[in-house]
Amino acid sequence: MDSQNITLETNETIEYYNLNSKAFTNSTQKASLSDIHQEFISRLQPNSSILDFGCGSGRDSAAFKSLGFQVSAIDGSKKMCEIASEFSGIPVKKCVLKNLIRSIRTMESGPVQVCFIFPQRSCQKSFNH
Fold first, then answer.
1. Mutual orientation of helices 3-19 and 78-88 as an angle, nearest 10°?
2. In 82-103, which positions are buried (b, 16+ CB within 10 angstroms) versus exposed (e)?
3. Interatomic CA distance for residues 87 and 59, integer angstroms
4. At the N or C end, where does the chain have fewer CB atoms within 10 A?
5. How does pLDDT run along the chain (129 residues), one tens digit per residue?
6. pTM of the model
7. Are 109 and 121 in contact (CB under 8 A)?
8. Residue 94 pairs with which residues in a beta bridge?
9. Strands 112-117 and 92-94
10. Could you write out the three-class secondary structure of the chain?
């Protein structure tokens, strides 16, 4: 897949969430994923920070914040950023994946814990960048 196709797909995805933000929020924001959240945080070191990339409605950001973690949240959709900020009480920044990758490459950090949370399943992987 070339970069032009990735850009088009990214734009289509962001536009989908901008247009369907209320329906998406209604279907995801109240879902309880506490088992997945607990499994994820059990792998973190004390005083860890969490970046919720693609935070959507802010459900996970709010949950991690309520558990005492320092949470940063970003999403590609302006509408979802607004909804997530209001719900979680965290200022959510608008960012797309290619910009995040550039930022990560300039960071100095240790182990990174990643958890992709979907209502249907969870996938966790630990890696160093």
1. 50
2. ebbbebbebebeebbeeebeee
3. 8
4. N
5. 444 444 445 788 889 999 999 998 998 888 888 888 888 888 888 778 888 888 999 999 999 999 988 898 989 899 999 999 999 999 999 987 666 665 555 445 555 555 555 544 444 444 333
6. 0.71
7. no
8. 75
9. unpaired
10. CCHHHHHHHHHHHHHHHHHCHHHHHHHHCCCCCHHHHHHHHCCCCCCCEEEEECCCCCHHHHHHHHCCCEEEEEECCHHHHHHHHHHHCCCEEECCHHHHHHHHHCCCCCCEEEEEECCCCEEEEEECC
**Phi, psi angle pair for 43, to nearest 5°:** -95, -5
For residue 64, the tally of other CB atoms under 10 A from its CB is: 23
Torsion of CA 48, 74, 107, 37, to 10 degrees: 30
- Separation of alpha carbons 91 and 102, rounded Å: 21
